[in-house]
Amino acid sequence: MSTYSFLDVQAAITGPGGSINLGAGAAVSEEGISIEPTEDINTMTIGADGSPMHSLHANKSGRVTVRLLKTSPVNQQLSLMYAFQTASGTNHGQNTISIANSKTQDVITCQIVAFQKAPLIEYKKEAGLNEWTFQAGIIDRTLGGGA
Hints:
The structure is a single chain. The chain has one helix and nine strands; from the N terminus they run ββββββαβββ. With 147 residues, it is mainly beta. The relative contact order is 0.25.
């Protein structure tokens, strides 16, 4: 029987202004971390006679979203990194995000990463979370076979 636990997830962002833990111990919300391709990897075109043609896109870009509890100290660390990297183009888009799950053997490496935007800030009855969104120029992913 296989078991999953976020405790087995190691994740970090490294770039100008620091190296920050984004995995277990960072007060990640239950919605966690998601990695999503920017676009489909294939386009299928159908000819007038019904013949299919596939076009493989050379695109490995995508979006990484990290959701942190409002009270996570990582919010401040990311906020400082965001301010540093967006002060000029010199430090922008030079991050790497690494995500691995030691139990499932998943390994995801995101390169040429930039902050997409600052998180929406809300003050309401319940604290909620802060969503940090990044755009990655290259995402290499290998999903393991589980345990």
